[in-house]
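Why do we bother with holo predictions? Because pocket geometry can differ from the apo form. Keep that in mind while you read this record for S-adenosylmethionine.
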Amino acid sequence: MANQCGKLYVVATPIGNLGDISFRAIETLKQVDLIAAEDTRHVGMLLRHYGIGNKRVSLHQHNEDRASLALLEKLRAGLSIALVSDAGTPLLSDPGMPLVKLVKEAGLDVVPIPGACALIAALSAAGLPVSQFTFEGFAPRTSSARKTFFGERALTPVTWVIYESSHRILACLQDMATVLPLDREIVIARELTKLHETIVKTTLAEAVALVERDDNMRKGEFVVIIDGAAVVKAEQDVTEEQLRVLGVLLKECSIKTAVALAVEITGGRKKSLYQAALATQQ
Ligand code: SAM
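The structure, written out:
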């Protein structure tokens, strides 16, 4: 059945510099019958730049369940469709997940056309360990939710990455500094691939000071990369779940109580959890 049906191509587009698109992506956008775009006007600029005709349909977070069903019917009817977002790789903090899930569940082909992605671009130039990392999307919008969010990740043993907007970058870093050690290494990657691209690797304390004093460091789009918790990396016998539980408890209790409760909840070793807890207080 998949043979008579059209394919869904998930196409990455540039995150700033229009040169960052693959030949295959351009060919795919030219050849498909329809382009499902987050913002049809926005993608119009890209399509005009490459001389690609107008065959856009809208697929954004407010219509994606309904629009995905309609697109599945078009694929079943034999049309080929490219999915693009405003910038970078669709689905990564962008619409597309319901469509891809639906199409796969229907047994039809989903073909990735890889390319730019802000988090991967930032990691590739950050100078922090990347053999393992976690991508955490956007941090919550309110200060209290952000502190909880960062507290839960304070003991994450691997590099972690968040997206942030110009409106919240300063508040985000200030909140991070209330729950993470001030000497934790972080990288601020701003306006990647654009004229004012800036990639700064420094401590959390310095990052807050820099963004406070330099207006330009509050402009544009941001990826923030945070080094994993140092001592915890050496503690191979502490699992990520144990660290998460410990992180939550440490926000409310003394080290002694938090460790005792974490041992009871997770069954972890007291000595290891105690060392992990100490690492967060440094
Ligand atoms: N799907 C996109 C991707 O593949 O990176 C991400 C879309 S998400 C809605 C937009 C966020 O990605 C921005 O708020 C920013 O955090 C990050 N971002 C996108 N482009 C960027 C750039 N050129 N430089 C730094 N961060 C960027």
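Residues 15-16, 85, 87-89, 92-94, 117-119, 163-165, 189-194, 221-223 surround S-adenosylmethionine (CB under 6 Å).
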